[in-house]
Amino acid sequence: SLIFSNNLSLFASGSRSSKTFKPKKNIPEGSHQYELLKHAEATLGSGNLRQAVMLPEGEDLNEWIAVNTVDFFNQINMLYGTITEFCTEASCPVMSAGPRYEYHWADGTNIKKPIKCSAPKYIDYLMTWVQDQLDDETLFPSKIGVPFPKNFMSVAKTILKRLFRVYAHIYHQHFDSVMRLQEEAHLNTSFKHFIFFVQEFNLIDRRELAPLQELIEKLGSKDR
């Protein structure tokens, strides 16, 4: 199905000894954000992804972006969880998306100067960093009426830019494993939803999307 339930904890039994990713705590039932998530799931079910990503009438843009960012984090967490055993220090000594794109990690606080590291290490840093942002109530307020901070949009853009890199790595380096696991429909639907969302609100710079440009054009052309 298109919708990934929010409480899948594939990493619990995964092969990561250092640290298991825990998906973002569930959006609390009964909250407005939960209603928004349900709305998103219902429109996704209709199969029209371009429509599904649009801001629902009368809703707050920041809140819509927040709810969807949490959802994408959970989806990517789960998708990467299915292939972690194939993404190792040996198979992926650098974090790359094909031969032309290599990523070095820096978060601006703990690691200020970008460091070259293996893909599993990079993704561990990245997902832990995203989780820390999502758990920060001053950045992602879960209570109704608590305002979003002025820098919310720039933080959300950074999160989505980094989450894109995990998709790019999976597509370039692990697509054969995805095919063997028969996960490609899941991956493609998740990525297509993600791309339509970031395009709708102009959240990721076109240059950053370059590693998957051909795929993005292909996915987009089917919906014209």
From TrEMBL:
GO terms for MF: kinase activity
SMART domains from the UniProt entry: Mob1_phocein
Residues that, per the record, bind Zn(2+): 87, 92, 169, 174
Domain of life: Eukaryota
Assigned keywords, A-Z: Kinase, Metal-binding, Transferase, Zinc
InterPro entries membership: MOB_kinase_act_fam (IPR005301), MOB_kinase_act_sf (IPR036703)
Protein name: MOB1A kinase
Species classification: Eukaryota, Metazoa, Chordata, Craniata, Vertebrata
